[in-house]
């Protein structure tokens, strides 16, 4: 199954805010589809399966994953010791495209994925063009020493308004590079999600 490339606002109308997918918001309030409004106002409730499915879809669309990619992350999270849901989120947040988004190199993960694939991003001084590259604590994420790369990221940084960057990264404004200090804190993840429901969705597979 390929990565979704359709209308983004249609997805956020159905699933809610997905900061990794788009920062735009639809003026339409109803869920998409012919029965988007009536199915919920008429008393029809979502099934437990439907609720778990939507939480899974949030994760998939926010981080720009295919179904097979997400399932691989689920299996890896189960394999590691600790709270499976938190480990899953930490694995996704340590992807190179996610780290670049956290640092503000692009307005969405969709955008930073393109920066990575086009060779604008470095890890510890070496260009890495794989968005799913799993970063580690201590890695330094920077910009390729090329005017074009620097200009793109500088413009993105100017247009992105930060309250505070998450505490698991440290950003050097002069060098335009970030250092990964730790794994992410659950409370600092922007995506509104019940990851336990995602784990439950895959529990029968």
Overview of the molecule:
With 205 residues, the chain is of the alpha+beta class. It has two domains: 8-91 and 191-204, Ribosomal protein S4/S9, N-terminal domain (Ribosomal Protein S4 Delta 41, Chain A, domain 1), CATH 1.10.1050.10; 95-180, RNA-binding S4 domain (Structural Genomics Hypothetical 15.5 Kd Protein In mrcA-pckA Intergenic Region, Chain A). The chain has helices spanning 8-15, 38-41, 48-62, 67-79, 84-93, 96-103, 109-117, 147-159, 195-202, and strands spanning 121-123, 126-127, 140-143, 169-172, 177-180. A five-stranded antiparallel beta sheet has the order 2-1-3-5-4. Helix 3 crosses helix 9, helix 4 crosses helix 5 (84-93) and helix 5 (84-93) crosses helix 9 (195-202). The protein is globular and about 50 Å long. Residues 3-93 form the Small ribosomal subunit protein uS4 N-terminal domain. Residues 94-158 form the RNA-binding S4 domain. It comes from Cerataulina bicornis (Diatom). InterPro entries: Ribosomal_uS4, Ribosomal_uS4_bac-type, Ribosomal_uS4_N, S4_RNA-bd, S4_RNA-bd_sf.
The total of beta strands comes to 5
The structural class is alpha+beta
Distance between the termini: 17 Å
What's the order of the H and E elements? Answer: HHHHHHHEEEHEEH
Low-confidence stretches: 38-43
Name the CATH superfamily assignment of the largest domain.
Ribosomal protein S4/S9, N-terminal domain
Q: Please, how many domains? A: 2
CATH topology of the largest domain: Ribosomal Protein S4 Delta 41, Chain A, domain 1
CATH architecture identity of the largest domain: Orthogonal Bundle
Percent of residues in beta strands: 5-15%
Mean of residue pLDDT values: 86
Q: From the alpha-carbon coordinates, what is the Rg to the nearest angstrom? A: 18 Å
- How is the main sheet built? 5 strands, antiparallel
How much helical structure, as a percent, in the residues?
Answer: 40-55%
Name of the CATH class of the largest domain: Mainly Alpha
Alpha plus pi helix count = 9
